[in-house]
């Protein structure tokens, strides 16, 4: 006999979305199994663990080359972009597709576990790895590379959590249009490429014409990284860094865009996600 | 497969109720566990394919109901609606009086499901799979005990992908009963099992039935339905064509008498036999000098035939008299339109 399931109420928004109460015990059981699977799958484990570490090493060379702290910090924050794109988004698209094709999702749905618990439980290891690497990066960058202590750590963490939510939802939706794990390399390209261009991961947005820059600011990764940069160095670009409270004034607009993407993600998920293989 | 005296059964069952299962005289009227009414399922919108076309049946508590049918008859499509995996495009499903799709949370804790294939990550071990599944259930049985029931205790460290097809089916069955369900939905539970494992599974299912668990299963194996089912339905092209107990279903089909036609004998010289029936659709009366007669009164017909042959001093070589079987009933349904393919094994 086991203890009754720990049930927490997800609050008003969760209920309005028809999600109902969520059991952390059930999410934990799925997350634990998923973690074992992630570590057992060499390709996925390498994407999740080695790619971000390699990125950090790359940034380290940047910092030592020009010694400019602000540039180093901006680059280090783009590492978070890679985490969201590869550890969360790409990794989860392949995971959801693999579980669907093995009919694991369908089998889980025959049980007591709810739809939201299945999707969240499957995402647990990816989210845990991403957030652990965020903290590691902040600590390592501060201690070893001499980057400034984050101006507003709560903002930095909230931004990353919101970014995780956006890219989990996009992963759920993308998995619906992906037939096999292999074709995920193609179906994830629109989100990956647009996110990288728009967010400045591959170059500065400032060098673009005004109109194009404004469009890019609306893409999913851009506002997340703006919030991350505000939280860490207190500025998104060349402006003078602000303090803990000052950055909040600038956080409003990107936060609004993130909320819009959460809404887009929920609606895309409802429209495209599939629990079962195609007949 | 070692069976302990009592297999972990549904919750809240009193001693008295358990006894009534083996003593029908004391049994209260069986409440209906599954009620399916005019069920329909269409794939791909209004222009799409209707896989289930108005199916109705009910399953009482402690009963085993089998759905038989050709490939594409709609068995799995029907079962998935009963499991609550999808919304029917027409008709209703009730499990314990509730809608399994809309009232998912209330129904799921009482049902155990085995899908037709797959369902567990290939890279997990048997023990990890069982621990994960148990972690999602409100009141799981001990994992070791359930794995013992399906004879997988020695395979706990093996990855699912390294199990044989039969072992995977047994793991799936173990997970279906792990949550102490009141009703089991099994989609082809013994496909891919060797004969010994199949009999062990039958033994396990019978023990569950004695415990008062209700079972709804689909199967390709007629012997499985004949062996286990209290009642069955034969589906064809989305509809139930025949339903009832095995005896009832078989009784609607004639018995057969076959023999080699003696040299020089014209079939027209044969006497009229009691209860004679025309050959079923698609079954030839004579092939290669062998004659097959159909009757719904086997003993009088056989007596008349043998008396006639004795009187004329004829020997009926290769004489074979057989009551109708489930196989014949099934073939009659399958041949009523469309090929049998590899349905009967």
UniProtKB/TrEMBL annotation, chain A:
Residue spans crossing the bilayer: 44-65, 71-97, 118-147, 153-174, 186-205, 255-273
Topology term for the membrane: Multi-pass membrane protein
InterPro entries: ABC-2_transporter (IPR052902), ABC2_TM (IPR013525), ABC2_TM_bact-type (IPR047817)
Chief subcellular location: membrane
Keyword Membrane among record annotations: yes
Keyword terms, alphabetized: Membrane, Transmembrane, Transmembrane helix
Entry annotated with the keyword Membrane: yes
Residues covered by the ABC transmembrane type-2 domain: 43-272
Subcellular location: Membrane
Protein's name according to its UniProt entry: ABC transmembrane type-2 domain-containing protein
Organism: Plantactinospora mayteni
């Amino acid at each position: 006999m086991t203890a009754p399931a720990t049930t927490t109420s997800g609050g008003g928004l969760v209920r309005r979305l028809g999600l109902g109460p969520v059991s952390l015990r059930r999410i934990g059981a799925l997350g634990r199994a998923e973690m074992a699977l992630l570590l057992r799958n060499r390709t996925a484990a390498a994407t999740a663990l080695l790619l971000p570490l390699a990125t950090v090493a790359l940034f380290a060379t940047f910092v030592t080359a020009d010694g400019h702290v602000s540039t180093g910090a901006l680059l280090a924050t783009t590492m978070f972009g890679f985490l969201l794109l590869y550890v969360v988004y790409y990794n989860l698209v392949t995971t959801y597709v693999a579980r669907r094709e093995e009919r694991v999702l369908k089998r889980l749905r025959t049980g007591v576990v709810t739809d939201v618990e299945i999707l969240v439980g499957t995402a647990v290891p990816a989210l845990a790895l991403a957030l652990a690497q965020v903290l590691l990066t902040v600590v390592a960058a501060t201690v070893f590379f001499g980057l400034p202590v984050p101006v507003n750590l709560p903002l930095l963490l909230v931004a990353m959590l919101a970014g995780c939510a956006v890219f989990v939802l996009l992963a759920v939706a993308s998995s619906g249009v992906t037939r096999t794990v292999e074709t995920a390399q193609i179906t994830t390209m629109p989100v990956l490429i647009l996110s990288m261009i728009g967010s400045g991961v591959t170059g500065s947005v400032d060098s673009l014409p005004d109109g194009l820059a404004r469009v890019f600011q609306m893409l999913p990764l851009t506002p997340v990284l703006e919030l991350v940069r505000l939280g860490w160095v207190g500025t998104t670009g060349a402006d003078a860094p602000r303090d803990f409270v000052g950055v909040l004034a600038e956080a409003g607009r990107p936060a609004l865009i993130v909320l819009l993407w959460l809404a887009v993600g929920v609606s895309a998920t409802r429209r495209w996600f599939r629990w079962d293989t195609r007949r | 497969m070692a069976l302990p005296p009592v297999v972990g059964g549904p919750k809240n069952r009193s001693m008295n109720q358990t006894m009534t299962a083996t003593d029908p005289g004391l049994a209260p009227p069986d409440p209906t566990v599954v009620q399916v009414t005019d069920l329909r399922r269409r794939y791909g919108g209004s222009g799409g394919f209707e896989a289930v076309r108005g199916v109705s049946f009910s399953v009482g508590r402690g009963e085993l109901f089998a759905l038989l049918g050709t490939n594409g008859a709609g068995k799995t499509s029907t079962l998935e609606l009963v499991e609550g995996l999808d919304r029917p495009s027409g008709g209703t499903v009730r499990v314990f009086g509730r809608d399994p799709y809309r009232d998912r949370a209330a129904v799921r804790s009482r049902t155990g499901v085995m899908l037709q294939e797959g369902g567990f990550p290939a890279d997990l071990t048997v023990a990890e799979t069982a621990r994960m599944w148990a972690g999602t259930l409100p009141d799981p049985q001990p994992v070791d005990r359930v794995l013992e029931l399906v004879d997988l205790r020695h395979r706990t460290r093996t990855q699912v992908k390294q199990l044989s097809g039969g072992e995977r089916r047994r793991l799936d069955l173990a997970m279906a009963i792990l949550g102490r369900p009141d009703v089991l939905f099994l989609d082809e539970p013994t496909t891919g099992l060797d004969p010994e494992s199949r009999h062990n599974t039958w033994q396990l299912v019978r023990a569950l039935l004695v415990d008062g668990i209700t079972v709804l299963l689909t199967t390709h194996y007629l012997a499985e339905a004949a062996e286990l089912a209290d009642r069955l339905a034969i589906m064809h092209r989305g509809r139930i064509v025949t339903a009832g107990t095995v005896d009832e279903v078989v009784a609607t089909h004639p018995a057969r008498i076959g023999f080699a036609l003696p040299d020089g004998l014209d079939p027209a010289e044969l006497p009229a036999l009691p209860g004679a029936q025309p050959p079923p659709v698609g079954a030839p009366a004579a092939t290669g000098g062998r004659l097959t007669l159909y009757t719904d009164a086997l003993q009088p017909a056989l007596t008349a035939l043998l008396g006639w042959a004795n009187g004329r001093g004829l020997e009926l070589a290769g004489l074979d008299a057989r009551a109708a079987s489930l196989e014949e009933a099934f073939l009659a349904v399958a041949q009523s339109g469309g090929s049998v393919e590899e349905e009967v094994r």
